[in-house]
Amino acid sequence: MNKLKFDSGSYRDPAGSVFFENKKVYRNITNFGSKKYEFIKESGLLEESIKQGFVIDTKEVNDQNLKNQLPDSKYIIEHKKIDYISYPYEWCFYQLKDAAIHHLDFQIFLLKNNAILEDCSAYNIQFIESKPIFIDVLSINKYHEGMYWNGHKQFCENFLNPLLLSSKKNIFFNNWFKGNLEGIFTSDLNSVLSLKDKFSLNVFLQVYLLDKLENRIIQNPKKTASKLKKIKPFPKNSYMSLLVQLKKMIGKLFPYKQKTVWDTYSSNNTYNKEETSFKIQVVKKFIQENSFNTIADMGCNDGLYSFESLKSGCENVIGFDFDLNSVNRAYLKAKENNSSFLPLYLDAVNPSSNLGWNENERASFKKRINFDGMIALAFEHHLTIAKNIPLDQTLEWLTSLAPKGLIEFVPKEDETIQRMIALKGDIFPNYSEDKFKQLLEKKAKIVKIQNISSTKRKMYEYSRD
Amino acid sequence: MYLIIFITSFFSILTVEAHAYLDPGTGSIILQALIGFIAAAGTAVSLYWQKLKLFFKKFSKKKGE
After folding, report:
1. N or C: which end of chain B has fewer CB within 10 A?
2. Chain A residue closest to B41 (CA)?
């Protein structure tokens, strides 16, 4: 009998947990959670939620072998497998905004059908073909007249506050969110927002007032507890209008306008159109010659080569970039084309690590690697030269991402490298193409080397097979 | 705006002390009750306002006849 592998992040809900078996994703529903599941199944809500694109494809399975291994489980359901799991701290502004609106739309739909979401975790949203999708079906429960929205605080911390922080204060939420997996605390945001920001009624209510109420409660816990007992039921139309108001509020939030280094990279980079079209041809050929399911595009910028890879037959592309404005642009382009391109924020010298409870709740970047191909165009020098990562370590890391890949080598005399070392000087005596080639050969087989027109930049194709 | 100023001055006299064992969602529940109350009061006021407006309209029409 196989020991089932449970998702280490799926431990909070006693109603059930996610587990994996034979490359499939399942969720067990315990006796404790069975009533909840029976409600969403028998009311037709689950089916309708899937049909309307709110919830990931899910079906009940009757696998005796699995049931034998899960004696406390009444039901087992199977979810459609998501190609790459991403976390809110890896999303750009527009991804978090779309996830928030999806969450609210789903809650509005549920409330109309006398149901609610028990929690509002942003981790319950994933992206498939640039569209947000809700994955935690056991969060759905029956609505009872007079109920309050218990997930409101979590919604603010996971969605609203990070968006406000970026939109009002030009502080990207990602590193803050990664440091506190619960999101951005309302008290922290309230300290950062200016008086002018709080003059908006919504910000005043959802941030300032909420923070003050929380402080007041901390000061008078006994008084609050007795007040809570006498609290009046919350009318359904007030519940609905709270959801609608938040949706309107979030719909009007946009990233703070300011250009970052890479914002105009595609148009301002140092190579000409001829070189770009040559690079596109090399990428296309590489993709066509290999039938890749998922490739990683390291330093994807706005996704030029990712889109070409998809056009050439690759099923999915996960793009990574350090610059959040580029990720925003890449995501908007992907969304426009319903494309299977998922651009994400990644600082290669400080990637997402294993985080959360027992350092195992949210998996690191390395742990989630499932790429069968990799392209790293004009990328290695940003690690080796700009960040002083030794060349052999850069190549070790890059080749570990996928068994096959394309790496562009940028010579020292290149304009971009000259700019990078203008102040710190040439402290890279061992950086040369010969060394690059020699080190790459130690990690993998060099399949092909191609010159990129007039410059001394070269495309190296490797294979670890 | 007066509402904002009133609530701001009311809460700004409070100081913060982080202790006590309470469900962390309590503040949000009280906020919802408050928003619900404000919305209900607003609806009631607007309902009476409409009635009042209607009454004066009828009154002025009768006077005009």
Report:
1. C
2. A238
